[in-house]
Amino acid sequence: MKIEDYGIIGNCRSSALVSKYGSIDWCCLPDFDSPSVFASLLDDEQGGYFGFSLKGDYSVTQAYINNTNILRTTFISSDSSFEVIDFMPIYRTDEQNYYNAPEIYRIFRIKKGKPLIRIEYFPMLNYARPTKGFTDSDFIKHITTEGRYESVYLYSDLPPELILGADYFILERDCFFCITYNQKLIKASYNRAYLEYQRTKVYWMNWSNRTPTFNLYQKEILRSALILKLSIFDKSGAIVAAPTTSLPEAIGETRNWDYRFCWIRDSSMVIKTFLQIGHTNSARKFQRFILNVNQGKQEDIRIMYGIRGEKNLEEEIIGHLKGYMNSPPVRKGNAAFLQKQNDIYGVLIDAIWVSLQKFPSTLDTSEELWTFVRSMVAVVTKQWMKPDKGIWEIRGPDRHFVYSRLMSWVAVDRAVKIAGMFGKDQYADEWGEIAQNIRENILSEGWDEETGAFVQYYGSKDLDASNLLMEEFGLIEADDPRYVSTVLKTKELLTRNGFMFRYINEDDFGKPTGSFILCNFWLVNSLYKTGYQKEAQELFENTLSAANHLGLLSEHV
Fold first, then answer.
1. Helix or strand or coil: residue 30?
2. What percent of the chain has pLDDT over 90?
3. I need a surface site. Which of 257, 490, 506, 535 has the fewest CB within 10 A?
């Protein structure tokens, strides 16, 4: 199954990938970064999955229930039809608390006839380590038999022999399944499953209702917002970059990493988006997460953390899994946590600046935040002239990346504005001089006259899509000839058939072979602001055309 054939469900604790044919092929429990329960996404032979087979010729459609992260997959044949509703429960229990247990509900509802079906329930725990199952009076339990102990329970109103048997049977009535990391204390039943469904549906619909309505592209905007919300780890406020590991940038390549962690850059961009659309609670939680993992007056911050604030994310290869579409290795952990990337301070302080504008009433109680900003500016002041790995985490030599310098400038520039809000004029004056020095350095060293563009790193002739953000962050005006030229050169050299690469020069893994969807949207914004509105509109529509049947966009195309 290709990655574009999947939808995602989740509850701000973990998530699962459901194929357009109704098979759950990836899920980690109890949390986003836990060992997998189903992993056929990474090994279709031994990874484990929860699907079913049907007798007869069925047409299949799949869609999200409006304004929710609940999936409905509908099966229709000439003489029978039914639907499968998949969700992970999340709802409010009181004014302060939410219920989001590590479990998946599957509700089968018959619309017509009596489908002939075979259940295929094969959990393979802890990244497909040896697993065995047994039945109890009211559940089926699977446990690992080697290595770290893991277990998972399945509750259903179908008899165990029908679930674990190899034969087809007639599905004569509606039924439910609950895959859960924890043994249930409240008796599982169809009515209970349906109640969880209704509670979860209300939660997502209420959340969607608090999202602004836009005249254009409302459907696409809301779906994007819902997916971003799903990616928040509610316990800490951290945001996972992705709920999966080891999906390669291109089939057969080894650029495949574990992204079930919180990147400061990515998360800050998400939080800034939430602030812009009025979802302030998520921004507050992430801000608290950052302050919690960087306690005291230490003058450093990591590029990424575990979703509970872990700082050691040691990388490990899981050799017995063959990888997505035979693209090994499968990795757990990410060695990039050791890298130095100077751009993270800029996106983070920019998000803090936006949040303070949204919550001016918090200025009187923001001493901790002010101390944090001062500490980050101290780091930027010391290291903005030093080379680093850059935004794309290139595992090669450190270089003076233009984007890293840009974000160093953003960090100090926003800190100047924050100092002004707190009435700290002395800091504002001092930092203002530093910001001006960084800006002048970028404009003189980052521009290459022969290329006619701002380049990837000082002394390079190569282009980088991240430089399109120079105007967005305010370093340069949209009508500046140097910026206009950079936009047009970037479009000319980095796009293929309407899709844009981050860069095309060879790195430590060779030449990139996949475009990067985020860069398409950067280019749309840049073209629009530089006067190429028609081209921007066409590029935007072309980018949306890459979405799958559920309106979801992958990182790479």
1. coil
2. 81
3. 506
